[in-house]
Amino acid sequence: MSTKIGMGWLAVLAVAGVVSAADWPQWRGPERDGFCAEQGLLSDWSQPPKKLWQVATPGEGYNGPAVADGMLYLTGATGAGKARTGSLYALRVADGALQWQYEYGPEWAASYEQARSTPTVANGRIYLVSGMGQVVCVNAKDGQKVWAVDILERFRGRNIQWGIAESPLLIGKQLICHPGGPDAAVAALDSATGATLWTSKGLSDGSAYHSPALLTLNKRRQLVTQTAEHVVGLDPETGAVLWKHPHKNTYSVHPNTPVAVGPDLVVVSSGYGYGTECLRIGDTGATRVWHLKEVDNHFHGILLIDQRLFLTSSKGTLYCLNPQDGAVLSKLDGVGKAALLGIEGGLLAYSESGKVLLIKRNGATCQISGSFPVDFGRQQHWSQPVVANGVLYVRHGDGLAAYDLRQKK
Description:
The protein has one helix and 31 strands. By secondary structure, it is mainly β. It is globular.
């Protein structure tokens, strides 16, 4: 039996205890690490998984759904140009039927105009960040607005080339976001009211499409995130900068959530020629342990499973790395630039080519053992796959489908 071994378990945060253990209530799952801990999922794809249902959502999005308490929550955008509008949708997991929708305001309307944020669900509320910098809290039961904050206006931030693209992190009562303003590269809002709790004084970098993590490094709980020019560690209670490390690529695009790989080690990865690096966090700051430029993961995610790192490169190769020294343990071509999800005994990959692949894993060795096409929706295949309660959910533009991954009895 496969065992996930990671250091990011604290990222369960406030989500723990308020949703089912098999739900997927936020970006990258219950522990924000891209791993599905369910056992007994379908491992033979000689026949593709059965499609349970497929629906067209009113709006288009690059985000996957959050799953909690029998409902799916996802965002989408409709209209064109200045009339582009974002909405939050609540759909029933049983059949994808729309239960309610809430229009949260203008949505990103320039290049790659679909909605971006994966909602976070906790304590009966839903939190999202729009491509225009609106942070919104909605009642999960009926879709009524609780509060909304324009973080670009409040913190004097500026939007970025392809629009704000982050999925909010909840730490107790603190909702973390990235305004990219003066002394406010990062900010914490009160999850109950939207009031400002703290900003990152002394850190004024722009936003970088990043969804952060709460990790324990060097025996200290830290908010680890990326800005336009740095990887940073912040005190989650005050926003004080604990350390920062230069990390900048051509377009300041750093969407991959950091992964802790040891008591004082964290791994980050970026595309556009930067690559993957491991940092050691000590009392005096961060030092680089290793750097692999060729393993340049664009925005498809990093997985830590059984003390091994799995991620794809811009050339479409799946790499397995030793996280301690960066040694390449194996490479698998033909996967493509793919969003990865860890499961017992393997990986699920949703490739930009429009295929979902089952990848069997034996130690560091990986092999493609089945696939099926995503033959609905439109534009880029950029969503993260989601597995909750034995069901795989795949989003493509205005299409959403559910596939049965439960073993037949």
